[in-house]
Amino acid sequence: MRVGVITFPGTLDDRDAARAVVAGGAEAVSLWHGDADLKSVDAVVLPGGFSYGDYLRCGAISRFAPVMQSVIEVANKGMPVLGICNGFQVLCESHLLPGALTRNSDLHFLCRDQEIEVINNQTAWTNSFKQGEKIVIPLKNGEGSFQCDDQTLLVLEGEGRVVARYVGENPNGSRNLIAGITNAKGNVVGLCRTQNMPSMS
Amino acid sequence: MAKIVVDVMLKPEILDPQGNAVASALPRLGFTFAKSVRQGKRFEIEIDGEPTAAQLAEVEKAAEILLSNPVIENFVVRVEK
């Protein structure tokens, strides 16, 4: 399996993500923001970092990168797409996922170990976890507070589209302790942060 | 030459930690007038000549697609002389 890892200007964790892809038993393929060619990959990871310096809003400029036009097209057709950290922000700005990630409620940039609970293990990216499994991830962002309107929140909760929740105290003001969500099909997933992806379907 | 201004504000129901931080800093400096503070963004766009209705419609479109995120923000477009 070939898994593409996108590098935007300002992406930091592309090599981390590529290493995780290899650890998961797949081939990591580097994708470039300015190139719309997805190089026949079977899945795409949008890694963390500060694409375009987080200018305007995190992920707002990346959304219009040539590679994202291709990603949006294949994601809508069902290709597995994972956004981590800044990648999650890009997926929200691209409207592949609902809601938005805003400034942490206490304004602090967080960089620490954080326990999260896997709520939905049916997505393309979380199906090797047990439901309710608690894992520790390195939380690393300044704008990780997941916000959406009440109606969207009801839909996400009602359709089981919350993928992961923070355990313990709310680290950043995210609604309902949300640490990750998925789209209706379950192929697009955004996570606050993850270290290793044990498997990809 | 005219200036088109786009003001972008977080929707009232969206938490604004930056505005809250400013609101709590004001009394520390002796300013006690603020009941609350919301922080937003202002874009100033210069164009040649007077803006046409079509140009303003374009700016509205750009504000909706790029300058603001309609999930969390509202915007207002106006012309400043």
As for the CATH topology of chain B, it is Mth169, Chain: A
Classify the fold: give the CATH topology of chain A: Rossmann fold
**CATH C-level category of chain A:** Alpha Beta
Report the strand count of chain A.
11
Sequence of strands across the biggest β-sheet of chain B: 2-1-3
Radius of gyration of chain B: 16 Å
Question: Taking strands numbered 1, 2, ... along the chain, how are they ordered across the largest sheet of chain A?
Answer: 2-1-3-4-11-10-9-6-7
The proportion of residues forming helix of chain A, as a percent range, comes to 10-25%
Domains counted in the coordinates of chain A: how many? 1
Question: Percentage of helical residues of chain B?
Answer: 25-40%
Radius of gyration of chain A: 15 Å
Describe the structure.
The complex is a heterodimer of chains A (201) and B (81). Chain A is of the alpha/beta class and 201 residues long. Chain A has one domain (2-191): Class I glutamine amidotransferase (GATase) domain (Rossmann fold). Chain A is 19% helix and 28% strand. Chain A has a nine-stranded mixed beta sheet with strand order 2-1-3-4-11-10-9-6-7, with helices on both faces. In chain A, strands 5-8 form a two-stranded antiparallel ribbon. Chain A is globular and about 40 Å long. With 81 residues, chain B is α+β, with helices and mostly antiparallel strands. The N and C termini of chain B lie close together (8 Å). The A-B interface holds A 56-57, 60, 64, 92-93, 98-100, 102-107, 145, 147-149, 173 and B 10, 13-15, 17-18, 21, 66-67, 69, 71-72.
Give a brief outline of the structure.
With about 200 residues, chain A is α/β, with parallel strands linked by helices. Chain A has helices spanning about 15-25, 65-75, 85-95, 150-160; strands at about 1-5, 25-30, 45, 80-85, 100, 110-120, 135-140, 145, 160-165, 180, 190.
Key descriptive features of the protein:
heterodimer, A: 201 residues, alpha/beta, Rossmann fold, two-stranded antiparallel ribbon, 11 strands, B: 81 residues, alpha+beta, 30% strand
